Amino acid sequence: MVFKVRVCLIVKAKVKQLKGNEKTMRIISILCWAILSLVLTACASGPISRSDSVGFEESGKASYYAMKYQGRKTASGELFDQKAMTAAHKRLPFGSKVKVTNVDNGKSVVVRVNDRGPFVRGRIIDLSKSAFQRIGNTRDGVIEVEIEVLP
Does the model's pTM come out above 0.85? Predict the structure, then answer.
């Protein structure tokens, strides 16, 4: 019982102390929310428009789709085909033609974006197995590439 009374007295004292600083606390709270909003907005990366995508370049890692995705519906609505020259990219518009170049051997392939992904950190594009085989060895699984959106 004595403990509860002491806790109540301490809490009441702190509340009185905070009421004096209430205006300051509100200002700090508003500033924190404003900064958080700006940070989250800056981190958001939505799709790139078709007009802005031409000439877009990016470098990073490419992988290829596992066989379990054969025949499944892609984000664009079409069925995935391992034999087609297609790819998944997080932000490029569907239908974009992308030149993908293997940094190690200089080989390149042109693919069409028809899906979203990859959703693995550090990877920038997922290729169909057929497209991947044109520029690299599937035993490697992941290769360093440069991509460029074509007109």
Answer: no
